[in-house]
Design brief:
The complex is a heterodimer of chains A (about 110) and B (about 110).
Chain A lengths: L3 E2 L4 E5 L4 E7 L6 E7 L5 E8 L4 E4 L2 E6 L4 E6 L8 E8 L9 E2 L3 E6 L1
Parallel strand pairs in A: 2-11
Antiparallel strand pairs in A: 1-3, 3-8, 4-5, 4-9, 6-7, 7-8, 9-10, 9-11
Chain B lengths: L3 E4 L2 E4 L5 E7 L5 E7 L5 E8 L2 E5 L6 E7 L2 E6 L8 E8 L6 E2 L3 E5 L1
Parallel strand pairs in B: 2-11
Antiparallel strand pairs in B: 1-3, 3-8, 4-5, 4-9, 5-6, 7-8, 9-10, 9-11
Chain lengths: ~110, ~110
């Protein structure tokens, strides 16, 4: 059974710092991995999707990497801003197609202090 | 706007009542999902439909019955609501192999 772990559960950093959020998964047979952002009381916003054949994806100040063999992904946030404060969730999909259910980690709540 | 939308956004009801949550996506996706986020913020899959056909049912009580009238809609009906059903319910959609896009959520409170 796939399990996704995100540690620590919470993180507080000063504005401007570069930071790395970690995600680990127990079963390396994944189809892809998706990083989301969730603001308090809101839905999930998709940030990046990495296919199993890819090593990384970039969008603006965000860079996500994937190492399937070791069961790890990281989300790198450059030059953090107070507006980056949110909960960041990673989720994996084991199979392509119709039965592609996401298995989520519990998220990392990030606070960027001005 | 292209998006996944859900109604209602908030739902407060008494134990034992029956309620429905509606979801619509206009992204042209063929697969839709219901997820439940509990009080500890943990997200878990409940159901998945592909082209109106139930694909995933994650040991959810029979009181929960999803219905997909067409590819763009996936509704969730809940019978005999219980206190433990209080949560945020998210609808999502995707195409094969693509990212999943989530609706804004429906916060259900059972009193």
């Amino acid at each position: 059974k796939q399990e996704v772990t995100q540690i620590p559960a919470a993180l507080s950093v000063p504005e401007g710092e570069n930071l790395v959020l970690n995600c680990s998964f127990t079963d390396s047979a994944i189809y892809n991995l998706q990083w989301f952002r969730q603001d308090p009381g809101k839905g999930l916003t998709s940030l990046l999707l990495i296919q199993s054949s890819q090593r990384e994806q970039t969008s603006g100040r965000l860079n996500a990497s994937l190492d399937k063999s070791s069961g790890r992904s990281t989300l790198y946030i450059a030059a953090s801003q107070p507006g980056d404060s949110a909960t960041y969730l990673c989720a994996v999909i084991p199979l392509a197609g119709a039965n592609s259910k996401l298995t989520f980690g519990k998220g990392i709540t990030l606070s960027v202090r001005p | 706007d292209t998006a996944v939308s859900q109604t209602p956004k908030y739902l407060v009801t008494q134990m034992g009542n029956d309620k429905s949550i509606k979801c619509e996506q206009n992204l042209g996706h063929d697969t839709m999902y219901w997820y439940k986020q509990d009080s500890k913020k943990f997200l878990k899959i409940m159901f998945s439909y592909n082209n109106k056909e139930l694909i995933i049912n994650e040991t959810v009580p029979n009181r929960f019955s999803p219905k997909s009238p067409d590819k763009a809609h996936l509704n969730l009906h809940i019978n005999s609501l219980e206190l433990g059903d209080s949560a945020v319910y998210f609808c999502a959609s995707s195409s094969r192999g693509g990212p999943q896009f989530f609706g804004p959520g429906t916060r259900l409170t059972v009193l």
